[in-house]
């Protein structure tokens, strides 16, 4: 006599395990997001001990922001991000390619991985304080340059636009290029060695291998790196905040959008803060979508393009 085995369904345990995440996301992220959007349509601020609002004003907060210095601060944020990101992605790609290339026979790659990732573990506030001390007029950098006889007067790095922006970009580069290098190394290591062997047999040099094999194969990771960097760039706050003491000096040329948002939060202007947050959310979404469309290849093997070409030939 055959015994019937009852089928056990384990799917419910999966839903149970992911339930804490959705509960915490709903309470601590989704509800505050909806509140932020709601407050962006209200006049809600504190003047001294008097609290004004919330009074519904429609799109007035959004219009007021467009007439403020928000666009200038958006330009500052973009410039600071570009200064840090371009050397970051270039150095990360070069290091990842060198460390993974077996032909170079680089020894101690694990040690180098740890070393280049260490700055990522340092708090941004500590990094900013370190650079503030090093590059001040009485700091060690000016002392070294003076002792070498290269300068006759101390250089005010934080008093010039180029100096302040360069320091912010340098700090962002040092903090994040190690993380990008590790990710790109993992992506390159995921490429089949047979492809590189075939390229070597065909006589490809290192430059051709990099541009025609490595870059196309790691495109998804490059897209991820670029998208996360854009989001991080729009959220840039701690480094310029500490380096310029929250003033965005000189002449607010290093004031970022999140520093501008923080000034509204300090003044308890929740309506303007909500509107600026919505602007940031929309801009982040648009930029990420554009980057994804530019870097995503939905026809990696060329089959769709070949099919379209054959279809056109049949019609002709």
Textual characterization of the structure:
This protein is mainly alpha-helical and 316 residues long. Helix content is 70%, strand content 4%. It is built from 14 helices and two strands. It has helices at 11-39, 60-66, 70-100, 109-121, 124-134, 140-147, 161-189, 193-201, 206-217, 219-234, 238-243, 257-266, 270-295, 303-315, and strands spanning 42-47, 50-56. A two-stranded antiparallel ribbon has the order 1-2. It is globular. The relative contact order is 0.13. The model has no long low-confidence stretch (mean pLDDT 86).
The CATH architecture name reads Orthogonal Bundle
DSSP summary: helix tally:
14
Q: Give the strand content.
A: under 5%
Q: What is the end-to-end distance?
A: 69 Å
Give me the secondary-structure category: mainly alpha
What is the overall silhouette? globular
Instruction: Give unreliable regions as ranges.
Output: none
Rg, alpha carbons: 26 Å
Count the E strands: 2
Count of structural domains: 1
What is the spatial order of strands in the main beta sheet?
A: 1-2
Q: Quick one: biggest sheet?
A: 2 strands, antiparallel
- CATH superfamily label: MetI-like
Mean pLDDT across residues: 86
Q: Which fold does the CATH topology refer to? A: MetI-like fold
Helix content: 55-70%
| Helix and strand sequence | HEEHHHHHHHHHHHHH
Query: Any idea of the CATH class?
Result: Mainly Alpha
Organism: Petralouisia muris
Protein name: Sugar ABC transporter permease
């Amino acid at each position: 006599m055959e015994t019937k085995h009852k089928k056990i369904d384990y799917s419910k345990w999966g839903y149970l395990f992911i339930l804490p995440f959705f509960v915490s996301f709903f309470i601590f992220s989704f509800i505050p997001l909806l509140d932020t959007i709601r407050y962006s349509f209200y006049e809600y601020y504190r003047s001294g001990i008097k609290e004004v609002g919330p009074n519904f004003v429609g799109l007035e907060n959004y219009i007021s922001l467009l007439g403020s210095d928000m666009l200038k601060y958006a330009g500052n944020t973009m410039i600071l991000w570009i200064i840090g990101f371009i050397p970051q992605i270039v150095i990360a790609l070069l290091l990842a390619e060198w460390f993974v290339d077996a032909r170079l026979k680089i020894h101690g790659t694990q040690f180098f991985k740890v070393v280049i990732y260490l700055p990522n573990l340092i708090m941004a506030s500590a990094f900013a304080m370190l650079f503030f001390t090093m590059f001040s007029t009485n700091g060690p950098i000016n002392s070294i340059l003076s002792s070498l006889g290269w300068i006759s007067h101390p250089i005010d790095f934080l008093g010039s636009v180029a100096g302040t922006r360069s320091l912010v970009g340098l700090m962002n580069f040092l903090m994040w290029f190690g993380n990008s290098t590790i990710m790109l190394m993992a992506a390159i290591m995921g490429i089949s060695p047979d492809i590189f062997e075939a390229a070597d047999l065909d006589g490809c040099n290192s430059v051709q291998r990099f541009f025609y094999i490595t870059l196309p194969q790691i495109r998804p990771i490059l897209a991820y790196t670029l998208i996360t960097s854009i989001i991080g760039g729009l959220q840039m706050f701690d480094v310029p905040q500490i380096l310029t003491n929250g003033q965005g000096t000189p002449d607010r040329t290093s004031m970022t959008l999140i520093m501008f948002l923080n000034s509204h939060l300090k003044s308890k202007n929740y309506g303007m803060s909500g509107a600026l947050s919505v602007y940031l959310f929309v801009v982040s979404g648009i930029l990420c979508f554009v980057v994804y469309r530019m870097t995503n290849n939905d026809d990696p093997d060329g089959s769709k393009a070949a099919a379209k070409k054959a279809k056109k030939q049949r019609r002709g």
